[in-house]
Write a structure and sequence with these properties.
Elements: H1 14-25, H2 31-44, H3 49-56, H4 60-83, H5 88-95, H6 110-120, H7 136-146, H8 154-161
Length: 164
């Protein structure tokens, strides 16, 4: 059974409204920040996640995510506002920006990639192949044979060589 969420209305101060309003009208800020600012402004006006999602063109789950993230940070934003109001704009910008993601670590080292490109620049006849040009499968075979990489796909080799 689906869990019902409650669309809590964030109560914004005038300075928060001003900052979010300027973000939402900006043409120079990232589009994601503009949309997220609009989410918070519309939410503060009492609109549900469904209605906000329709107005902005996002799925209501995304709206709920940003509304909840803002609601969780609201107490600390109020503390910042009372202490150092100049810092409030930067904190809101950070809050509504994407968080850093680690991503997967690289599979191949820069040295391996350089060796693969170097190999591709050489003639396959020098390595005992009866071909005038390298094919991706021949390159993969030779890369493994030379011990440059234990496992590598043709797609990876293609990416390194920018072949299409």
């Amino acid at each position: 059974m689906r869990k019902k969420t409650i669309d809590t209305i964030p109560v914004l101060s005038e300075s928060m409204k001003t900052i979010l309003s300027s973000f939402s009208k900006s043409r120079s800020l990232p589009a994601s920040l503009v949309k997220r600012s609009k989410i918070i402004l519309l939410s503060s006006q009492g609109f549900s996640n469904q209605i906000v999602a329709t107005k902005i063109g996002l799925h209501y789950n995304h709206v709920a995510t940003w509304r909840n993230r803002f609601l969780q940070a609201l107490p600390s934003l109020r503390d910042i506002e009372s202490g150092t109001p100049d810092k409030l704009e930067e904190e809101i910008r950070l809050l509504l920006s994407d968080r850093k993601r680690s991503g997967a670590s690289p599979t191949f080292t820069p040295e391996q990639i350089i060796r693969i490109i170097d190999l591709a620049c050489k003639n396959p006849c020098d390595f005992g192949y009866e071909a005038s040009h390298w094919s991706l499968s021949l390159l993969v075979t030779e890369i493994k044979k030379q011990g440059i990489a234990d496992r590598i796909s043709e797609k990876s080799v293609s990416r390194f060589l920018k072949m299409r």
